[in-house]
Amino acid sequence: MEYSILIVPGLGDSTTGHWQDNWLHHFPNAKKVIQDNWNQPQLQDWLTNLNTTIKSIDTPIVIVAHSLAVSLVAHWSQQNDTSKIAGALLVAPADVESPAHTPEEIWNFAPIPLNKLNYPSIVITSDNDPYISVERAEYLSKNWRSRFYNVGSKGHLNFASNLGLWEEGQEILQDLLLQIAQNKK
User: Fold this and answer.
1) Which of 6, 78, 81, 141 has the greatest number of CB atoms lying within 10 Å of its CB?
2) Hey, CA dihedral for 129, 11, 82, 165, is it positive or negative?
3) Distance (Å, whole) CA 128 – CA 80
4) How far is C-alpha 71 from the chain's CA centre?
5) Which domain holds residue 47?
6) How far apart are CA 132 and CA 26, in angstroms?
7) pTM
């Protein structure tokens, strides 16, 4: 089955050199959600743009969300028809409920919805991510009924992590695609 890979960046966008931007150019079936204000995000505005992008895609969608966008996807999934979503890779969630971990400009994304997601998903974290603890990322994963991966000490899995095409992430994406295929049987 042909899927669209929907790249959903977080705060500040995932620009040149970020693995999400590299994936956008690497996968021929990849699209990206564009937000009006990458640096002062407002949940309702970001939800509208995510929803508009999802509605514009005709094939089943695999979401690839990073950081703040993980909370965005959790909110969107509670409020919208998720039938077009085949699965989601939820990378380096930012703990928007923790003033110790995240900047004030993203606290309007709290609280993070904890309801089970209606599609296969995988949460990926790093054990030294400054924006969330491993325990909190695993807690979110359990509530969402997502598979959980800790990829070791790689920071926030962002531009500063210097991941290139992030082959390890692509392998985990393949695991997700396999999980999706098994669920269809």
Assistant:
1) 6
2) negative
3) 33
4) 8
5) 4-184
6) 28
7) 0.97
For residue 1, the model assigns a pLDDT of: 66
Q: Residue 149's pLDDT is what?
A: 97
CA dihedral 43, 49, 52, 53 (to 10 degrees): -120
Q: Convert 31-69 to b/e letters by CB count within 10 Å (16 or more is b).
A: bbbebeebeebebeebbebbeebbeeeeebbbbbbbbbb
Please check the confidence at residue 185 and state whether its pLDDT lies above 90.
no
CATH code for position 162: 3.40.50.1820
Number of domains in the chain: 1
Q: What is the separation, in whole angstroms, between the first and last Cα of the chain?
A: 13
Reply yes or no on whether the pLDDT at 32 is more than 80: yes
For 98, list phi and psi in degrees, rounded to 5.
-115, 100
